[in-house]
Amino acid sequence: QVQLVESGGGLVQAGGSLRLSCATSGRTFRTNSKGWFRQAPGKEREFVAAISWTAGNTYYADSVKGRFTISMDNAKNTAYLQMNSLKPEDTGVYYCAARRGGWGVPEYWGQGTQVTVSS
Q: Cα separation of 24 and 54, whole Å?
């Protein structure tokens, strides 16, 4: 099996930064691609960013382009989401996701970490 554990969430003022981490354990060979989703209260879960280490491709939602950066350290089996210039609308629970092969529908999910941006 695969386990994904997020960390790094917290409370930050608008304009601030946070870095989320997603540590992978278990059958990590099944997590070639990793991504981040978020869910705000009363809203559906939405895609934020993804990375495919095999091809080196990255993908971003329009709402975070230029502010968020996704990266992956394969030696540590950990993915990161650097979030800069945070806005109150970035508030939500952030979930790490992973799958085999190139990026697509996730096969594995983490439990989530709360990010709250105050105005």
A: 17
